[in-house]
Specification:
- This protein has four helices and five strands; from the N terminus they run E-H-H-H-E-E-H-E-E.
- The chain is α+β, with helices and mostly antiparallel strands.
- It has a single domain, classed as Molybdopterin cofactor biosynthesis C (MoaC) domain (Alpha-Beta Plaits), CATH 3.30.70.640.
- Helix 2 packs antiparallel against helix 4.
Length: about 150
Amino acid sequence: MQPLRMIDVGDKPVTRRMARASGLIRAQPATIVRLAAGNLEKGDALTAAHFAGVMAAKQTSTLVPLCHPLPLDAVELALTICGPEYVSIEATVRATTRTGVEMEALCAVTAAALTIYDMCKSIDRTMSIESIRLEEKTGGIRGNFLRS
């Protein structure tokens, strides 16, 4: 068994990096109505989820053991109610650094989803967090990726 180790990125060139990730929250239609109205016992879940996503992206290296701490240039989140049962979450992270920001984007989506779940769980135990995935990445020596 090989020991765990953080990859040495010291010789990699500094490049502009971007990653975009997405995910879904599925909930009962009545839950989505209350979520959209900000009418929850704990308050406005969409705003809280937005802040949680930004904070998670900035803290990724403390959550995922082998990730490098990165100076992020930007973290953007979009939370959209799409239909009677879904909230779509998309995070875009940018940095000018030696390693990619895919994990930061994925952590942002996950934390936003968990925040919505936490704030709605008292009214909807059927909720699910679904389809968290990388959609796109640019920069670095491995080139670009775009999910088709």
